[in-house]
Amino acid sequence: MKNQSIWKRVGDFAMGKGFYIVLFLCVATIGISGYYLLKTAVGGIQSTQPAGGSASVTIPDQSGVKAPAAPSKPEVTLPAPVETPVKQPTPAPAAQPDDPEPLKDQTPEPDTTSGQTISKVFTWPVRGAVLRDYSVETLSLDPTMGDWRTHSGLDIAAANGVKVLSISAGTVEQVYNDMLMGTTVVVDHGGGLQSWYCNLDSETAVQPGDAVDIGSELGTVGGSAMAEVGEEPHLHLETLLNGQPVDPRDYLD
């Protein structure tokens, strides 16, 4: 009963004034402890010195000292540009007063087909009217046969015995008697050109291999062409180029 009263008193005291006294003492203790702890920390920082002591650096006076000059760049000498020589045209030699006048080329133009030359000068083999013209693309009336057919030459009116002349220079290639066209003389003029003279008299003035000039006599007009006996006396003339019939007027005119 007595112990119970003691603890009751302690409790009453703790719940009364004693509680505030204990609380004050705790706060004071914490404050004092914080003060000393802060002072100790600040004092330790101020008393710390750098290792090795203090050092000072003296900067010498630089006013009288000249800065070293920057190194100059070495001078580079570029080679002079090489001029490319301009090629000058070679002047033509001046004509001298005594130079002869150049001669014009009078060589006949070569024929590209055979490599031989063709004369540019032609003449009619006889003088007379054309009884029947050259016609290989269209049909013409044949007076002897009485029908329409092609005609590969010119029928030139001329009396029997009239001289037949070579239309241009050349070489006699053939002299023979044809069953239909009678006595025939063939002259080669070079360059693939040939002239055929038909319906001649059996006696001719040339033989194969003879060289003839323009206007040379080959023979005379006759009546030996059986295929053209229906016409008046005439010379049948044909021209062939590389073996193909061409119009004799292309040369005679």
Characterization of this structure:
This protein is α+β, with helices and mostly antiparallel strands and 253 residues long. Helix content is 19%, strand content 26%. The protein contains 3 helices and 12 strands; from the N terminus they run ααββββββββββββα. Strand 2 (135-142) and strand 3 form a beta hairpin. The longest helix is centred in the N-terminal third of the chain and has 30 residues, at 17-46. The termini are far apart.
Observed structural traits:
253 residues; eight-stranded antiparallel beta sheet; two-stranded antiparallel sheet; 3 helices; 26% strand; rod-shaped
Give a topology summary:
Layout: H1 2-15, H2 17-46, E1 130-132, E2 135-142, E3 147-151, E4 154-157, E5 163-165, E6 170-178, E7 182-190, E8 193-200, E9 211-212, E10 217-220, E11 234-241, E12 244-246, H3 249-252
Please outline what is shown here:
By secondary structure, the protein is an alpha+beta fold.
Helix content: 10-25%
Arithmetic mean of pLDDT: 76
Give the SSE string: HHEEEEEEEEEEEEH
Structural class, from helix and strand content? Answer: alpha+beta
The number of helical elements comes to: 3
Morphology call: rod-shaped
Strand content: 25-35%
| Distance between the first and last residues' Cα | 181 Å
Number of strands: 12
Unreliable stretches covering 5 or more consecutive residues: 93-115
User: What about the largest sheet?
Assistant: 8 strands, antiparallel
Rg is 71 Å
